[in-house]
Amino acid sequence: KKFVYDFTEGNKDLKDLLGGKGANLAEMTNLGLPVPPGFTITTEACKVYLETGAEPVALSNEVSAHLEALERQMGKRLGQPDNPLLVSVRSGAKFSMPGMMDTVLNIGLSDASVAGLAAQAGNERFAWDSYRRLIQMFGKTVLGVDGELFEEALDEAKRAKNTPNDLDLDAGDLERLVDHFKEIVAKQTGHEFPQEPREQMDLAVRAVFDSWNTDRAKLYRRQERIPGDLGTAVNICSMVFGNLGADSGTGVAFTRDPASGHQGVYGDYLQNAQGEDVVAGIRNTVPLADLEQLDKSSYDQLMQIMSTLETHYKDLCDIEFTIERGKLWMLQTRVGKRTAAAAFRIATQLVDQGLIDEAEALQRVNGAQLAQLMFPRFEEHAKSQRIGWGIAASPGAAVGKAVFDSYTAVKWSRSGEKVILIRRETNPDDLNGMIAAEGILTSRGGKTSHAAVVARGMGKTCVCGAEELEVDTKRRRMTVPGGAVIEEGDVVSIDGSSGKVYVGEVPVVPSPVVEYFEGRMHAGADDADELVQAVHRMMAYADRVRRLRVRANADNAEDASRARRFGAQGIGLCRTEHMFLGERRELVERLILADTDAERDEALSALLPLQKADFIELLEAMDGLPVTVRLLDPPLHEFLPDITELSVRVALAESRKDSNENDLRLLQAVHRLHEQNPMLGLRGVRLGLVIPGLFAMQVRAIAEAAAHRRNVKGDPRPEIMIPLVGTVQELEIVRDEAEKVIAEVQAATGTDLKITLGTMIELPRAAITAGQIAEAAEFFSFGTNDLTQTVWGFSRDDVEASFFTAYLEKGIFGVSPFETIDREGVGALVRSASEAGRATRPGLKLGVCGEHGGDPESVHFFHEVGLDYVSCSPFRIPVARLEAGRAAA
Ligand code: ADP
Ligand code: MG
Ligand code: MG
C-alpha cells in the first residue's frame, strides 16, 4: 500500500484518501496553478496509527523518499543550516473539523538554521519572526503547552517596546522572544525545543494523527454524523513567506459572495503577515479589492485563478493565498460553505452561466435548507441587543417572557402569555414546559442535548449551549455578559436558526418563501427578491423530474387548501378522529355508552350528517385529487373524561348523596375501556369490528359526501383507508361491510362512485403478510410512525424524552428513527411489503403517511423502494417536492 502521494499525484476526487485539503492542493497543482510543492500522507496511514498505536512500518521510508524529491526540486534540504527548506505540516480530513490539530508552519527552523534563513532572505527580522512563530505553534499544538503563556510573553515584548503592533518588534526583540519561548517550552514540557528538523516534522505528523481523537473532534463527529474511523491525512507543504515585508502578505477570498451568491471580489488581505494572522485578527486586514493598488500583477493573476477555479469546480470556492515578494502562491481551495439562501441563488446563477444543468443544480441545495428558508425570522434591521450566542439547535424565531421552570411555563401559557423556557439544561421533567413554551433556551449542551433533540422533534425553536448566560433557576434569573440581569417575566427573543439570543422583543416577519408558496408573492413580481425567484425555479426543476407524488396530511378544508397552494397532489391522510373533538365529543360519548342498538343507532345517526359535511368540504378543497380518509383509529377512551378527574367527581357527588346516573355509567365505561397499553389495545380496525355500525357510518358519510359532490358537478376522489390491520381477515370483514354501504349509497343516489378501499401497513405482521393483504387492499399506505414504534418496540410519546438523548450520545443511532426512517429495520419491511404487495396485485398503489413523508433522507428512501407518493404535513410539502426531485435527478 502506498501511504504518501506527491501533490502531482492526487486529484480532487481522492478526498477519502488525501483529505479535502490534500485532494484540492493536488487538483490545483495539476491545473497548473502556483502551489508550493509538497506531498500528502494518506488517511490510511492515520488509520493504521490509530488502530495499532504506531505508524505503518513503510511510512518513514516513503516520507524520506518524498522529502528527498522535494529537497531536490527546491534545491535545499529541510533545515539545512545555510539554506534551509522549511515546510508546513497541515492536517486535513475528508470533512473539515473544528477541534482537529492546527497547522504548524516553518518546520525545519532551528538555532542552527535561523541565520541561514536570514541570509537567504536578506532579512534578519523575518528569520527570527518565523522562528518564534514555529516555537509558538509547535509548542501549543504539538507539545501541548498552554498558548496563553506565549501570548503573554509576546505582549510583554510589545509592552517593553511600547507598541501594540508586532511589526514594531525588531530582529533583536524577536531573538530575545525566541529565547523566552524556548524557556517556556523547557519549563512546561521538561524538554528542550526539538532542534532536529526531521524530528520536528515527524512529531508534528504524529500530533495531527492524535488530534483525530480529541474530545472536541469526537463530539463534533458524533453531532455531524461523521464516521469515527475515517482518519485524517497530513499535508507537508514547502513554505512560502508572506512576512517578508510590504511586498508580501497573505489573504483569503471567495469566488463569489457566500451570502448573496453575487460575483465580485470578496476577501481580506493582510500585508507582511503569515498564515493565521488574517483570521486571528491581530492587525486590521484590508478588503481584497485594495490589493489591486498594492500589487496589481498579483491581483490580476488572483482574479484569473479564481475564475479558473469557479469554472473548474463549477461552484463557489473559497481560497487561501500568500504573496511572497510579489509572487502569488495558492495554499488552499475548497467548495465554499454558504447560507441556505445563497445555496439557492448560486445554484440558479450557475445554471444561467451554463456551468451546471438543472439536475446538478438540484444537488446543490437540499430540503433542510428550504425548510430553514420557510421559518419566520427576525426583522433584519431591528435594533436589538444581543445578549448571548449559543448553538442553533432547532430553527425558528421565538419571542416570549423568560421563565425558569416548567411549572411557570405551563401556568403562564395557560393564561395566554408567550414564554421562553430558560434552563441550564432540560430533562424529561421539563417536557410540559417545553410544550407550553414558544421556544427553549439552555446554557449547556450541544446539538444532541435533551433540549435540542426534543425541541427538534416538536418543531419548536431552540437555542442551546449559550454558555455566556448564567442561568440561576433557583433565583429565577439569568445574568448576561456585562452583568445585566434578566428576571422572570422579562421579554427575550431567540433565533433558532442562528443561535442568537436578544433581550426584548425583536419583530418577527414571515418568510418571503412562505409568502411565495402561499401565493401572496409572485416570482415574477417586481418586489419578489432573487431568493424567491431562485426557489421558484428550483421547485420547477424538482417537479419536472420527480417520480414520487406528494400529498398532504390534512383533516380540514383550510389545511387542504393551504396544502394545495404548497403543491400537494391530494390528501394522503385525513385523520377522522380530529373530527370527533369539541362539541361532538358528547355524541361519541353517547355512542360508547349505548346499551341498546337503538341508542347506538341514534348516536351514529347524529354523527353521520356532521361527518358528511366535513367530507364535503374536504372533497371540495381537493376537487379532482385523491383524498385518503382513514377510518377512526385511536382508542375510544381518548374521547372519555380522564379517569382520575371523573372518579373524584363521582366520589364527591356520592358523599353529598346526589350521584348522577350518567356520571356513574361514564365511570363504568371508563373503567371498562381503560387499557394498560392503549397503543396496542382496542383501536384501529379492531374498533370497527367491535363497535357495530361505527365504520359503516363513516363509510356512508364519505360515500354520501362524494355523491353530493358529483351532483354539484365536482370531481370527488375519496379513498377509504383501514388502520392497524394485522391480518387479511380483518380487512375482508370491514371491506365487505363497506362495499355494501357504498352500493346502497350508489343505488340511492344514482351515482357511480369509484371509491377505492385500502389499508395502512403499520404493524410488523401486516408488512410480513403484505402479499395476502394485497388481495383485499387496493392500496397500501405505510404508517411509518406506528411501524417504527412496533418494530422497535418503543413508544414515541415516552422514549423521545427519556432515553433518546442517551442513545444519541452513545451513537446507537445518529438521528431518531422517528425523524428519519430506519432503513435497515423499518425500511426493510417497507421494501419487502411493497414487493410482496405488488407481486399479488401489480400496480398496487403505495404511499407513506407519517412524519417520515416530509423528512429529506426518508423521501430518498421511499423513492428508491418505488412508492407512488409520500404524504406529509402541509408545511413540509415543498421540502418533500424538492427532495423527491433530488432523488430522481
Ligand atoms: P486551516 O485548515 O486551519 O486553514 P491550514 O493548513 O490551511 O489550516 O493553514 C493555516 C494557515 O497557514 C493558512 O492561512 C495557510 O494559508 C497557511 N499556510 C499553510 N501552509 C503554508 C505554507 N506552506 N506556506 C505559507 N503559508 C501556509
Ligand atoms: Mg486553511
Ligand atoms: Mg397509526
From TrEMBL:
Entry keyword Thylakoid: no
Span of domain PEP-utilising enzyme mobile: 417-499
Annotated positions binding substrate: R575, R630, E762, G783, T784, N785, D786
Source organism, top-level taxon: Bacteria
EC top class named in words: transferase
Co-factor(s): Mg(2+)
Residues where Mg(2+) binds: E762, D786
Domain PEP-utilising enzyme C-terminal: 533-884
Active-site residues per Swiss-Prot or TrEMBL entry: H450, C849
Catalysed reactions, as listed in the record: pyruvate + phosphate + ATP = phosphoenolpyruvate + AMP + diphosphate + H(+)
Domain Pyruvate phosphate dikinase AMP/ATP-binding per the UniProt entry, residue ranges: 16-53, 58-284, 291-344
Keyword terms of this UniProt record: ATP-binding, Kinase, Magnesium, Metal-binding, Nucleotide-binding, Pyruvate, Transferase
Enzyme nomenclature, EC number: 2.7.9.1
GO molecular function: ATP binding; kinase activity; metal ion binding; pyruvate, phosphate dikinase activity
Pfam families for this protein: PEP-utilizers, PEP-utilizers_C, PPDK_N
Keyword Protein biosynthesis in annotation: no
Signal peptide annotation: none
Matching PANTHER family: PHOSPHOENOLPYRUVATE DIKINASE-RELATED, PYRUVATE, PHOSPHATE DIKINASE 1, CHLOROPLASTIC
Similarity remark: Belongs to the PEP-utilizing enzyme family.
Protein name: Pyruvate, phosphate dikinase
